[in-house]
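Input record (Table S2, row 555):
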Amino acid sequence: MIENQSNNQKLSFRLHNLAEAIETLLANPPAGISEEMLALLREAISNGEHGEHALPPRLFYEAVEQAQVAISITDLNATILYANPAFERVTGYQVDKIVGLNEAHLSDRKTPSIVYKTLWGRLSQKKPWTGMLINRRENGERYLAEVTIAPVLNPEGEPSFYLGMHRDVTEMHHLEHKVKSQKALIESVVDAAPVVIALLDEHGRVVLDNQEYKKLVGDLRTREPAEVFLAAIQDELGDKWETLKNNDGSFVDRELRFDIGGKRLPRWFVCSGTWFQERDSSADAFFEVRKQSYFLLVAKEVTDLKRQQEEMKMNVLRTMMAEGEAVENMRETLAGAIHQFEGPLNMITAAVGMLERRAETRGEPDPLCEALQNALGSAEEAIENLRRSIPAFAEEPVVPTNLNEILRDVLTISTKRLLAQGVVVDWEPAPVLPPVLARVGRLRSLFKHLMDNAIEAMRDEGTKAPELKIQTLAQEDTVCVIVQDNGPGIPEQLRFRVFEPFFTTKSKANRGAGLGLTTVQDVVNLHSGTIQLDPSYTTGCRFIVQFPIVARSQE
Ligand code: FAD
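Output record (flavin-adenine dinucleotide complex):
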């Protein structure tokens, strides 16, 4: 009986304190209490105010009692006046035993005192405080508590109670920490990797990169190297690109040449890429499985190896080109000789014709005519022999080729000559060029011709600061090469004639057979390309050569 009375007294004490605390709390709701809970309590209070469906204080009590978060109400010295069952579950202390004790009882004595100072500092300003405290359960077990403490203000605006809410976040903290340290570990491994790594989202934006990638931004003088890499690989893969992308596919070891221009040598990378999907972690995708696509690009620089290979290639090339030039010179000399023979022979043919008609009229043979006919026959035979002895061009396979590579080769081969004449080379390649179908040797000699012509023209005219500009551009379906000098240029009236056989603007001393640009035109035609002299360029000579880009099916 006495026990029952004392229990009832305790309950009424709790109800009284709780109701008072909640009413005061609603007048000044602190952060940390869910909106739903506040709405429910406000609803109840407002119903009460209208006098109709007033909810009993017991409802507030039950609501807090059944809450899943540990709730306690203390006096201004943090002495616990009330604790809910969740408090008991989290701390292990039975409610009856903890009521009357200070909240400090929960402390594991590991929380730095500055934290408590901040906590009490906030409360003394009548403001709520939220933070982490290291607590200890009744069984001695340590746990990390996420605590919110709010002053409950009376109508005069003074604190009359403190409302404490806390939950055990040990496991969550542990997982968070694990995730963070794993992320940091992955990031430092990625960062230190001696290869270029970039992770791109489905819009092609770089979301993660490493030091090697960052270095490229400066080195390659491009804002986003990944964009250039992807454009080149996409171009190379053609339709396969979309298939791989849509099926989380991958590609490996695609070689990519990157031309920087100026005096800087090209760089080579071997690229691999993988598409994969990750679950979207944004809030709006919480209730549905939504995936986000990512693309991982890994590129290894192989420039050193390539340069060694290039050097070996250049030596072979020099020999090949010297041989090719000798053959071309021979072709030009023989063609020139035939051309020179043909003039007088045509005259002799005409004379023979006249003598034949005269002999016919006279009705008797003309010994001079016969002698000339014989001479003509032998001369034609000799010319035919000469024609047959013109060496043919070596048969070459037609292969998809990057014109930057060819031009760079020719520039390298011509380095000595360019230096000797003090020619400044302005090399402006498109960083990445689509391939054209080429007989590599023929194209090499084509560009060598154009460059040699430019160098010679500038030398002959004593151009003060000779400059040779070589530029490549990828246009819609063609690759365009510009070879430009600041020499004397070609007078307007001669521009159409320069491609004619045996036409030359060179001085007699330097005159060749005049077949150079004819051969150039032949090689351009052989590659279904076009060549023209730019009429708008008047401070020298500018040739624009265009070749069709290789259709995917032809590769
Ligand atoms: P304390 O002697 O309590 O004091 C530490 C610092 O706080 C000192 O700088 C002191 O000046 C200041 N301080 C203490 N009491 C007051 C006061 N009444 N007014 C102004 N300044 C004061 N602590 C936990 O470790 N875990 C909990 O889960 C926890 N929950 C709490 C819930 C509520 C509602 C409240 C009000 C406090 C809670 N505390 C909790 C804080 C607790 O009361 C102690 O302040 C803390 O545990 C440090 O105890 P201590 O004995 O080391 O130092």
